[in-house]
Amino acid sequence: IDMNHLKTIKNEITRFMMSYKFALDEMNTKIDILKQEFQYIHDYNPIEHIKSRVKSPESIVKKVRKKQYDMSLPLIKEKIRDIAGIRITCSFISDIYELSNMLQNQKDLTVVEVKDYIKNPKPNGYQSLHLIVQIPIFMSDREEQVYVEVQIRTIAMDFWASLEHKIYYKYNSEIPERLVEELRDAAISAAMLDKRMESIHREINTLREEAHWNEDDNSNL
Ligand code: 0O2
């Protein structure tokens, strides 16, 4: 065994994994700034929570095998675009699109793909907005463009997706059609809840604005 060769490979893998961590750090800062700006404009925080993760080497290898790609770092870097992932849970559906637009307008981000599973839910009922972006990271000796998958959803969508994920993991085999339909139905209920909350939110906003104008009118008297 050539120990030097092994050492080189180990260093390459460490650098590879580090670049995704840096990309997530950059994205998290960006999102935090957008959140503070949004809070200033709209007077509320649109983000309930944010979770980010770097895919484990085991999961990366599993995905590469499943997709039958060659096990080479440059190929994995290009083909597996969710090694760095951020999940943003928003309060209202409109927040999702506003945040997505804000991200798409960032000069240093390249939006490579947008998958709108809210307008077009998956057959099982899954809803979320997915963006695949590229973000530059700057290291001592080079600059790199790194792919990050951003999933943006509401609390209700997140609730459904988390439990659906658990149910699938628990029952490793096919789930019966009756339960598939139940799950899809539950996703529709979640979406209805989102629409109701959004509508209440909008009405309160209108009332608030009217009250604000009235106050202004009175102060002019
Ligand atoms: P994990 O464990 O969250 O990382 P691909 O990424 O190429 O396999 P595709 O269709 O190109 O598949 O990507 P897509 O549909 O944008 O989905 C990628 C991620 O979205 C998944 O990552 C999940 O996190 C989430 N997702 C998509 N569909 C579902 C679903 O039906 N239920 C739930 N709970 N999550 C979903 P991973 O790598 O599969 O999983």
Automatic annotation (TrEMBL):
Pfam families: RelA_SpoT (PF04607). Pathway: Purine metabolism; ppGpp biosynthesis; ppGpp from GTP: step 1/2. CDD domains: NT_Rel-Spo_like (cd05399). Residues 52-175 form the RelA/SpoT domain. InterPro entries: GTP_Pyrophosphokinase (IPR052366), NT_sf (IPR043519), RelA_SpoT (IPR007685). SMART domains: RelA_SpoT. This is GTP pyrophosphokinase family protein. It comes from Evansella alkalicola.
